[in-house]
Structures are given as C-alpha cells and as structure tokens.
Write a structure and sequence with these properties.
11 helices; globular; mainly alpha; about 190 residues
C-alpha cells in the first residue's frame, strides 16, 4: 500500500497515522525512539505491507507488472491501489471528502513535524503543495506517482510501460482492488483492536 492507503488504514488516530506514514524511513530499533502511538503506527505499517505483499490478490496484480519490472512490480501495485482507493465511493463519497481527508492527514503530520525523520520532513512540503493524497484520484496524479517511483529507485529507468498497463488493464485492476481492500481494512482494524 502507498501513502493514501496507509493514512486511511490508520483510522484517524493521530499518532498511529504519523507512525504509519513515516515507517519506511525508520530503520530497525529506531522505532523505539518514538512515543507509543507512533510505534504502533510503525508496526501497523509493517504488518500492512507484509499482509499486502503476500495476499493472493496482490500476487495476481503483480503479474501484470512483473514481466517489465520484476521485483518492483509490488511498488507499482501500491500506487495503483491508492488510485482505486481515491476513487472508491465507499471510502470517499465525494471529491470534497477526499480533499478534507488529505488536509486532516497533512495537519496531523505537521503537528508531529519536530519528530519526523529528516527525509520525510523534507518531502512533506512537496506532498502538501502537490496534494499527493488527493491527486492519486486522477490519471495524471497516478502517472506522476509512478514516475516518482522511478526517481526514487536505483534500478528503474521508466514508468511509461506501467502507466500503459494501468490504462489498458484498468477494469481488471480495479476488480482486484475491490477484492483486496475490504480484506486489508479488516486486517488493519484487527491489528489496532478496533
């Protein structure tokens, strides 16, 4: 799952949300340097990633991207999941609902700004200015997110093929999302004992 899904699967719990959003930038025992709620979010993020990566639906989705991207197929799936989450009327009944959610997430992250990892702290202004969480909804925003994977990767050279697969297989990929998201939402809620 990518940023929007990790934020949504934090169920509006501020410390958990912050930990869930920064987890990729916290290595090993560094997680224990954070308050308990943020630690819980870091652990939730890691559980979500493990569940997602090994889920049969995700394995099926990866097959669309694996011939071109091999080990990076999962990273492309994460962005695709966020696109379909942003367009999911069961989760965000309108553009305003998604915009409001994004503003709330940014506000909660800003509230924890002093303890954010350096890389995430430097990235956050771009995330807000370009409204990444909202822009997963659009095809252009999704394309830009896929391009961002390439910029941050040592081994990827292009994302145009991934975007073409996304467009060509849109309906099938959306069906896979619809099978998967209820399962990951239930899993995350269980992890948080909600």
């Amino acid at each position: 799952m990518n940023y929007l899904a990790h934020a949504r699967l934090s169920f509006n719990i501020p410390g958990v949300l912050t930990g869930n959003m920064i987890s990729d930038f916290i290595k090993g025992k560094k997680q224990f340097d954070y308050p308990a709620a943020i630690q819980k979010g870091i652990q939730l993020h890691r559980s979500i990633d493990t569940f997602t990566d090994s889920h049969p639906v995700t394995l099926q989705m990866k097959e669309y991207f694996r011939p071109h991207y091999r080990l990076y197929a999962g990273a492309f799936c994460d962005v695709i999941y966020d696109h379909f989450l942003a367009t999911d009327l069961n989760e965000f009944e309108s553009d305003d609902a998604l915009k409001s959610f994004a503003v709330t997430v940014y506000s909660q992250l800003d509230a924890h700004e002093p303890i954010l990892p350096d890389y995430f702290r430097k990235m956050l202004p771009y995330m807000k200015a370009q409204n990444w969480l909202f822009n997963y909804k659009s095809l252009l925003g999704t394309k830009q997110s896929l391009q961002g994977l390439v910029r941050r990767s040592k081994y990827l050279t292009e994302s145009d093929t991934a975007f073409e697969i996304f467009n060509t297989e849109y309906t099938q990929l959306q069906l896979l999302y619809k099978q998967f998201f209820p399962a990951i939402k239930l899993f995350a809620a269980h992890q948080l004992q909600l």
